[in-house]
From TrEMBL:
GO terms for cellular component: cytosol. One of its GO terms (molecular function) is glyoxylate reductase (NADPH) activity. This is HPPR reductase. Keywords: Oxidoreductase. It comes from Syrrhaptes paradoxus. It comes from the Eukaryota. SUPFAM superfamilies: Formate/glycerate dehydrogenase catalytic domain-like (SSF52283). The keyword Oxidoreductase applies. It holds the Pfam family 2-Hacid_dh. The gene is Hppr. Residues 21-113 form the D-isomer specific 2-hydroxyacid dehydrogenase catalytic domain.
Length: 144
C-alpha cells in the first residue's frame, strides 16, 4: 500500500538567524513535507502546487500578493507568535486562505518578565547590584 503524501508547508528556513527553530523542525516534518523558501524559489511552478500551508515564524516569510499568486493550493497560513498585524488579512482572505494564530503562546513568559521588571524597579535591584558588586556599574553603563 502506497504511503500517503504529506501536504507541503512553506517555511523560510530551518535554523540560522531567521529560520524556524531546529527543535520545531521534527514536529513539522512529522505532519508536513517541509519546503524551504530557497527550495521554493528554485522551482516555483512545481513546489507551488505542493504547498498547502505556510508557517510564519517571527514574521517570516513575508506574505504578499506575489507569493499568494504562486501558491494555487494554499489553504492556511499558520502564524507563530502574538498578533497578526504583519499580515494583510483582507488580501489573504481574498485568496480563500485562512489564517491561524497562537494568541496565548507567550502570555505566561510576558507576564513573568513584566512582574520581574516591576519587582526589580520597586526593590531597586540594579542599584543594589552596583553597591554589592563594585565595578558592575561599568557593565550597566555599556548596556544602557
Amino acid at each position: 500500500m502506497a504511503e500517503k503524501e504529506l501536504p507541503g508547508v512553506l517555511i523560510l528556513d530551518i535554523g540560522g538567524t531567521h529560520g524556524v527553530l531546529e527543535d520545531i523542525a521534527p514536529l513539522l516534518k512529522k505532519h508536513f513535507h517541509v519546503i524551504t523558501m530557497k527550495e521554493f524559489l528554485q522551482n516555483k511552478k512545481e513546489m507551488g502546487k505542493r504547498i498547502q500551508s505556510v508557517f510564519v515564524f517571527e514574521c517570516r516569510p513575508t506574505i504578499d500578493q506575489t507569493l499568494l499568486e504562486s501558491l494555487p493550493n494554499l489553504k492556511v497560513i499558520g502564524n507563530s507568535g502574538v498578533g497578526v498585524d504583519h499580515l494583510d488579512l483582507k488580501m489573504i482572505s481574498n485568496f480563500g486562505v485562512k489564517v491561524t494564530n497562537t494568541p496565548c503562546a507567550v502570555a505566561d513568559p510576558t507576564a513573568d518578565i513584566g512582574m520581574a521588571l516591576m519587582l526589580a524597579s520597586a526593590r531597586r535591584l540594579v542599584e543594589g547590584n552596583v553597591l554589592h558588586f563594585p565595578g558592575s556599574y561599568q557593565l550597566l553603563w555599556c548596556i544602557s
